Amino acid sequence: MASMPAFSDVRAAARRLRGRAQRTPIFTSRTLDARAGLQVYLKGENFQRTGSFKYRGAYNAISRLSDAEKARGVVTHSSGNHAQAVALVCRDLGIRAAVVMVSTASPMKRQAALAYGAAIHEYDPAAGDPYVITPALAAEHGWALIEPFNHPHTLAGQGTAALELLEDVPDLDLLLAPCGGGGLLSGSALAARGMSASCRVIGVEPETADDAARSFRTGTLHENVNPPTIADGISTARLGSLTFPLIRELVSDFAAVSEQAIMEAVRFLFHRLKIVVEPAGAVGVAALMSGQYAGAGKAGVILSGGNIDAEVMARILNGSL
Amino acid sequence: MASMPAFSDVRAAARRLRGRAQRTPIFTSRTLDARAGLQVYLKGENFQRTGSFKYRGAYNAISRLSDAEKARGVVTHSSGNHAQAVALVCRDLGIRAAVVMVSTASPMKRQAALAYGAAIHEYDPAAGDPYVITPALAAEHGWALIEPFNHPHTLAGQGTAALELLEDVPDLDLLLAPCGGGGLLSGSALAARGMSASCRVIGVEPETADDAARSFRTGTLHENVNPPTIADGISTARLGSLTFPLIRELVSDFAAVSEQAIMEAVRFLFHRLKIVVEPAGAVGVAALMSGQYAGAGKAGVILSGGNIDAEVMARILNGSL
User: Fold this and answer.
1) ipTM
2) Which string of DSSP letters, residue by residue, matches A16-48?
3) Is A271 in Cβ contact with B108 (below 8 Å)?
4) Are B276 and A270 in contact (CB < 8 Å)?
5) Whole-number Å distance between alpha carbons of A250 and A188
6) Who among A51, A274, A311 is closest to B46 (CB)?
7) Residue A310: which of B46, B108, B318 has the nearest Cβ?
8) Is the model's pTM score more than 0.90?
9) Which run of H or E residues covers position A286?
């Protein structure tokens, strides 16, 4: 069992990532402020290397492996964005990468991981469990398992996006982060705890995939296996053994957003801010656009990624989903 | 007849625009550099106020009107982006705005001008000529005519995007700008002439709307009325009495890009850079992606705007145009 990460691990990750990860831009919009009823600061992780915040966690975890581990290679499982991130980090560091990926994953995300040189091990979601397949591959080949969220070095690295946002806008009252397995959210909460005495951290999920909110509120781990949501990047079944207690301790509340609200947020970011954000990355904006946080002061939002298949965006733009 | 603008007018416009226009970001992409065979710097005017460079020219021209002119109001004609820009500038300055717009204009651009409070005077492209309608309205109502490109203050303001790019990347070897009526191109060329002894300026047009290239090469004004191109923002029929001589004097060459190349550039900017660029704004990238400037050193490109209708982008993403 890995040890619980702390704010100091996020700080250390930020030092390690310097010159590797992009310091991503922060966007503002008067129209969004007016609609949400507060000042909004959007952290554009869609502009991160490989198009999502996952690069931060993957680099932090993989760069900390021993030389012997690096020589043997790494394995992970991911619906897409973490796969791309592990693949690019391994290519840059000259390490062999294998990715266990569900056969229904986004074709674009799968293709990107392949293009960066990773080997893909595909499984049928009705028949296989990545939590069985991946450790088995790791044991068989001696590969280091780089968990996509439930890993202290991964989630500490993922928290560096929020750290940068709080460095640039120190007086945030709220910080909203998408929640799938909880790596980004718990890393962000560690950063907020260390950077601000008063910033409240809100996890955001699709209404159809609200297992983390239920786990958070009840103290018992809930799950949503293969939930029906357009936000494939946060369709993870459940929180992990590290992320669940961190979220219980550090997060203030959860918000749930409808599929319609997610698509409206994607369209808003496209037309008004001229940026491409995938559905999972737009849930924080969707929550703010409901107006439920009006009057709360300054809100930071992690736009977690921008990897979206052309035909999914086409359907969202046409309003036909 | 208005006097010929000079580099000093672009400089003066930049001072006037400080705190009004956005200093837009510059994007780079290793993938694009590899594909184009040179270092590319993209000036993101899609992030400008109202979503295009047109704000710069409209603000510069309208803010220079006398108090008496401002009290009477302004009129312009535009397929869309200049209309939005004039409408917002007038709203901000408390001036009445009227826009003469073709009935086939992009619905989104029309809607945006309306939302900023402009009055729209629509005409049928088969029956009316904006170059007749607009001066008639100006004369009838005493409105100041803010030409979209053939106006010394408009085009000087439009040149400030290139000025900023050359301030940030002074050693550009090439500067590519889209060309419709030639305001952006001639303003950019004035900026380049003033900022660099060696930067070559290239105008870029759709193959189906190459009237400016033919005018440039022959010294005789050519025209393309309602050319069949997806790049509606640069489908202007001909250069103007100011922009034609400026372009003849200051531009080094023209490039023509196919409709397929324009759409591929829009898709590339969407998927790889996660930014929304309209077809007219992507022609410079389309020209570079052909590889025809490989080995030329450093190229700056004006991404002129990001205002694209949802259904047009959906069709481009689906590859069905």
Assistant:
1) 0.92
2) HHTTTS----EE--HHHHHHHTSEEEEEEGGGS
3) yes
4) yes
5) 10
6) A274
7) B318
8) yes
9) helix A283-289
